[in-house]
């Protein structure tokens, strides 16, 4: 990781969005619809985020989101490639 890359410092949610404060002062807002596991999670589950140098992790929801991906506008890729039953 490049030292100049911003890190998440705080994560919060409103009814429709996730807001991530970054170490460089920016705030990223993305629709919860981009991340179905978060959308369908409870407020308590969303609140159990672990912030790491690379991104965000929710153990109970099995969700990992990179800061680089958020900055690039990347949403959950699993919904784009459903597996056949």
How would you describe this structure to a colleague?
The chain has 3 helices and 6 strands. With 85 residues, the protein is of the alpha+beta class. It has a 3-stranded antiparallel sheet with strand order 1-2-3. The chain has a 3-stranded antiparallel sheet with strand order 4-5-6. The N and C termini lie far apart (38 Å). The mean pLDDT is 90.
Output the strand order for the largest sheet: 1-2-3
Q: Segments where pLDDT lies below 50 for 5+ residues?
A: none
CATH class: Alpha Beta
**SS strand fraction:** 25-35%
Please name the CATH topology: NE0471 N-terminal domain-like
Structural class: alpha+beta
Sketch the topology as an H/E string, one letter per element: EEEHHEEEH
Gyration radius, in Å:
13 Å
Intertermini distance: 38 Å
Please outline the major beta sheet.
Answer: 3 strands, antiparallel
Counting H and I runs of at least 4 residues, what is the number of helices?
A: 3
Tell me the CATH architecture.
2-Layer Sandwich
Briefly say what this structure is.
This protein is of the alpha+beta class and 85 residues long. It is built from three helices and six strands, in the order βββααβββα.
Task: Write a concise keyword list for the protein shown above.
85 residues, alpha+beta, NE0471 N-terminal domain-like, 3-stranded antiparallel β-sheet, 3 helices
């Amino acid at each position: 990781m490049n030292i100049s890359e911003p890190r998440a410092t705080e994560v919060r949610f409103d009814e429709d969005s996730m807001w991530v404060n970054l170490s460089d002062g920016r705030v990223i807002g993305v629709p919860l619809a981009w991340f179905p596991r978060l959308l369908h999670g409870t407020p308590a589950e969303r609140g159990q985020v672990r912030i790491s140098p690379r991104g965000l992790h929710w153990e109970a929801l099995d969700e990992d989101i990179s800061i680089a991906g958020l900055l690039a506008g990347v949403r959950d890729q699993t919904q784009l490639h459903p597996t056949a039953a």
